[in-house]
From TrEMBL:
Pfam families (UniProt xref): RNase_P-MRP_p29
Annotated source species: Oceanodroma tethys
Subunit structure: Component of nuclear RNase P and RNase MRP ribonucleoproteins. RNase P consists of a catalytic RNA moiety and 10 different protein chains; POP1, POP4, POP5, POP7, RPP14, RPP21, RPP25, RPP30, RPP38 and RPP40. Within the RNase P complex, POP1, POP7 and RPP25 form the 'finger' subcomplex, POP5, RPP14, RPP40 and homodimeric RPP30 form the 'palm' subcomplex, and RPP21, POP4 and RPP38 form the 'wrist' subcomplex. All subunits of the RNase P complex interact with the catalytic RNA. Several subunits of RNase P are also part of the RNase MRP complex.
Predominant cellular place of this UniProt entry's protein: nucleus
PANTHER family, per database record: RIBONUCLEASE P PROTEIN SUBUNIT P29 (PTHR13348:SF0), RIBONUCLEASE P SUBUNIT P29 (PTHR13348)
Gene this protein is translated from: Pop4
Family assignment from sequence similarity: Belongs to the eukaryotic/archaeal RNase P protein component 1 family.
Protein name per the record: Ribonuclease P protein subunit p29
A GO BP entry: tRNA 5'-leader removal
């Protein structure tokens, strides 16, 4: 057991460490009170700036051919399950596609929906060679659709000057490509006019 002097010295040293900003006279003044509230000074943590991982630029992605579909994978049957998933996605989006569903509501949903996996047909075009092309949309870019046909041919069809049709559960919707020149991610926030000037 410590003697009274040793205990007093220990307490004084302890209080001095606990309250480094206070003078000795102030500490002695506090000791005359019944309760002593010790102060706590936490060390400020220096935040380390984490390095952000930089992704590839658009040019680098093109050079690496990241978005190109390999020739051995350009087969229509491979992407039929994707089409089935797309149909289920549209049914959920349109709350079942019931017979009493309003066509303009379905059309509005389809304009903002993701079309990867949809089967589309070019119904009108200023270029006659595009008319009749039917297939599954594999990739959608701002200005073109990449479509795989039943003949296992990958077609790049521009949106401008083309009218596309897609059918699901009896609902046929028409897409005027000239008014549809947006990326898939941008269309979800776009407000489309269901009525207006229609041109190729």
């Amino acid at each position: 057991p410590q003697g009274s002097e040793e205990a007093k010295a220990f307490v004084n040293a302890f209080l001095k460490r606990s309250m480094p900003k206070m003078k000795d006279e102030a500490i002695q003044d506090i000791l005359t009170r019944k309760a002593v509230v010790l102060e706590h000074y936490s060390k400020k943590k220096t935040k380390q700036k984490g390095k952000k991982t930089k992704g590839f630029t658009a040019k680098q992605r093109r050079e690496m051919h990241l978005f190109e579909i390999e020739p051995n994978q350009q087969r229509y049957t491979i992407f039929l399950p994707l089409h089935e998933l797309w149909k289920q996605y549209i049914r959920d989006l349109c709350h079942g596609l019931k017979p009493d569903a309003q066509p303009h509501m379905v059309q509005g949903k389809l304009l903002k929906a993701d079309l990867h996996g949809a089967i589309v047909t070019v119904t009108k075009s200023k270029c006659p060679s595009y008319v009749g092309i039917t297939g599954i949309i594999l990739q959608e870019f701002k200005h073109v659709f990449k479509i795989i046909t039943k003949e296992d041919k990958l077609k790049v069809v521009p949106k401008v000057n083309n009218v596309f049709s897609l059918e699901i559960d009896g609902f046929i919707s028409y897409i005027y490509g000239s008014k549809f020149q947006l990326r898939a991610s941008e269309r979800s926030a776009k407000k489309f006019k269901l009525k207006g000037t229609i041109d190729l």
